[in-house]
Amino acid sequence: MTPKSPAPTAVEAADSSRTFSNPLQASRPRLLVLGAGGQVGNSLLRLCQSADSPMHVLGLTRSQAPLDQPDLFGSAVAQAIESFKPSHILNAAAYTAVDQAEKEPELAHRVNGQALAQLSELAAQHSAQASQDIAILHYSTDYVFDGQKPVGQAYQPKDPTAPEGVYGKSKYAGEQALAQGPSPSLVLRTSWVFSDHGRNFVKTMLRLGQSQQELRVVADQWGAPTSSDAIARASLAIVQQWPKPSQAPSNQVLHFCCEGTTSWHGFACDILDRSRRLAPELAWTITSAQQIKAITSSEFAAPAPRPANSQLDCSLTEKQFGLKRPHWSEALNDVLVRLLAKPLG
Ligand SMILES: NC(=O)c1ccc[n+]([C@@H]2O[C@H](COP(=O)([O-])OP(=O)(O)OC[C@H]3O[C@@H](n4cnc5c(N)ncnc54)[C@H](OP(=O)(O)O)[C@@H]3O)[C@@H](O)[C@H]2O)c1
């Protein structure tokens, strides 16, 4: 892959005479979720298992379906497809350690890239056996862009990609594997994911806000913090509408993130300001925004490069699926209320 060369991000299926056929989908979608232990996977399972959910769901964790072990992964997914008969596979599993990926490029490419080619093949093989199509909803990232667009101009799904670090390149390889694979696929690129579950920036800020006297946070990267619950809600709305039974199977790339834009510094200030108001009884050591210093990306010197502009234009996704996106601050509030009600893990 040449990361600087523009590449198509939406590919129509070669055989447009074939239409999507899945009788189960017309009634109640059956979702096989990979990466069930991660932020997005956990939100998907939680929402699907709520009493009023119209979904059937089966989640597989990393140990049940390891994407870095092709044989085990292949047999686990094949078995799950045969027994559960999903209408959709939602792949929330990924190698997401952005800096560590610089030291483990092969592993990152296997998990985020090659495993997607395998998944598309597996779904197609089983679709053929069962005469019923299985569609793949996959998540990708703002890091497929180099972020050189002026801040204020959001990236469109069809804008040329130019990932800079290993993580971004590996995620882009996964997008391409699905675009070239035999199964219908929809890739949702998202950004700056946070949750009350797993590791993320919000939980780090809560911990540091109760232990440090001063924080230094990058102020020259811009994007939309997005809760895993917002992604899961959007995903469930999408799978109820996609693919339409009359549609030719296709591969598409779309964007989904929360409304609004901020910098990591702005996000940190908001997290701690809200948290102090929501839980004044906690022993905050950061008690004002003056203790949160704005620094540049070069001062922070992370091992992997990050895009300066991570803004994703989601208008096509909103239009195609009638979605309404929450503002990131509203999504943050929901997560903080849950997080601050329990001891920080
Ligand atoms: N986090 C972000 O800020 C962000 C931003 C943009 C896009 N995205 C994309 O959004 C999607 C969901 O991200 P997330 O935030 O939910 O990530 P996450 O919390 O890191 O979850 C990823 C899941 O994948 C699992 N996993 C890692 N390596 C695996 C392997 N070899 N085989 C099977 N499973 C493996 C992890 O297992 P363990 O829990 O055992 O490690 C974890 O459960 C990913 O595609 C990611 O690239 C995330």
What features would you highlight for this structure?
Rossmann fold; seven-stranded mixed beta sheet; alpha/beta; disordered N terminus; globular
Write up this protein.
By secondary structure, this protein is an alpha/beta fold. The chain has a domain at 11-199 and 226-259 and 312-326: NAD(P)-binding Rossmann-like Domain (Rossmann fold), CATH 3.40.50. Helices cover 38% and strands 15% of the residues. It has eleven helices and 13 strands. The strands form four sheets. A seven-stranded mixed β-sheet has the order 1-11-6-5-4-2-3, sandwiched between helices. The protein has a two-stranded parallel ribbon with strand order 7-10. Strands 8-13 form a two-stranded parallel sheet. Helix 4 packs parallel to helix 5 (166-180), helix 6 (201-208) packs across helix 8 (264-278) and helix 8 packs across helix 11 (328-340). The longest helix is centred in the middle third of the chain and has 26 residues, at 105-130. It is globular. It starts with 10 loop residues before the first strand and ends in a 5-residue tail after the last helix. NADP nicotinamide-adenine-dinucleotide phosphate is lined by residues 35, 37-41, 62, 65-68, 92-96, 111, 139, 141-142, 171, 190-193, 198, 228.
In DSSP terms (H or I, runs of 4 or more residues), the helix count works out at 11
The beta-strand count equals 13
- What's the alpha carbon Rg, rounded to whole Å? 20 Å
Unreliable segments (pLDDT under 50, ≥5 consecutive)?
1-17
Distance between the termini: 39 Å
The top level CATH class name of the domain at 11-199 and 226-259 and 312-326: Alpha Beta
Structural class: alpha/beta
Q: What's the oligomerization state?
A: single chain
Give the biggest beta sheet. Answer: 7 strands, mixed
Architecture of the domain at 11-199 and 226-259 and 312-326 in CATH? Answer: 3-Layer(aba) Sandwich
Average pLDDT:
92
The SSE order reads EHEHEHEHEHEEHEEEHEEHEHHH
Shape descriptor reads globular
CATH homology superfamily of the domain at 11-199 and 226-259 and 312-326: NAD(P)-binding Rossmann-like Domain
Distinct small molecules? NADP nicotinamide-adenine-dinucleotide phosphate
User: Into which percent range does the helicity of residues fall?
Assistant: 25-40%
Q: Indicate the proportion of strand residues.
A: 5-15%
The strand line-up of the biggest sheet is 1-11-6-5-4-2-3
CATH topology call of the domain at 11-199 and 226-259 and 312-326: Rossmann fold
